[in-house]
Write a structure and sequence with these properties.
Elements: E1 2-4, E2 11-13, E3 16-18, H1 31-43, E4 48-50, H2 55-58, H3 60-68, H4 72-76, E5 79-84, E6 86-87, E7 100-101, H5 105-119, E8 124-129, H6 138-150, E9 154-160, H7 164-171, E10 179-182, H8 189-192, H9 195-202, E11 207-209, H10 224-240, H11 244-253, E12 260-263, H12 268-276, H13 284-295
Parallel strand pairs: 3-4, 3-12, 4-5, 5-8, 8-9, 9-10, 10-11, 11-12
Antiparallel strand pairs: 1-2, 6-7
Helix pairs in contact: 1-3, 3-5, 5-6, 10-11, 10-13
Amino acid sequence: MNSKLSDHGPMFSRIVAGCMNWGEWGANLSADQAHKLIEDCLTIGVTTFDHADIYGHYTTETLFGNAIKGNISLREKMQLITKCGIKLVTPNRPENSIKSYNTSAAYIISSVEQSLSNLQTDYVDLLLIHRPSPLINPQEIAEAFFKLKKEGKVMHFGVSNFTRTQFEMLNTYVPLVTNQIEISPLHIAPFVDGTLDQCIERNVKPMGYSTLAGGKFFAKKPGDQVERINKTVDQLTKKYDVAPDQILTSWILKHPSGILPIIGSTKINRIRSAVDALQVQITDEEWFMIWEASLGEEVA
């Protein structure tokens, strides 16, 4: 259940564990609880863990690092992703007076140095620029990337939330192995705006976050669009004898770009459910049933 991100990219687990909600922004796990969750993920073949420096107001990387501290064999079994470039206003960064982006070479390098310390590791497998700044300078980013690569602190590089043209601009300066994007039946823009087309063209596997739309499919009072999609999903759960989240995940997995879903739950049964969804093979017509439910009308 592994997937190579690109011709020159790393091998990641097809299902990725998203760590945004592990700390202050969610379950507030202890280091021991995080260690247990890491071990459970590895047991079911989920070996890739997605971070960002800002998660938990700059604290979640440290939580994860404390969970694996001193355990070299555990680190060797996993791949770590982190992101940088967003500056949050928080007591943990009193120097930040306004939420903004910084993708200068100096900022990227200092962010990575801090992430390595937080995560208790000598290197990260993948570094992503978290958001495309209007002031982005691809030459500066390339300078930082090449320095970090030469020093062995980052193995591969990519981006998150970049448009097709923004990806292409930076990719001309430094090889990118992925674009991490929001995608779900409630957020279908990447299917039609060229984002996924580019991934196929460049043989770059995208990573998908909020693939279950942040839990909106399971809300007590869903909107009309969600109700339409859930009605269709319910039909398919009966046919395949699986859970609704597995149908929704299989819908993401079916796309030929090879999307790697990031599962943000801290419940191992939810992560295992996503792994099991790899075995669910809906048909093309069933995929379009969910697409039509999202649109609220049949395709043209």
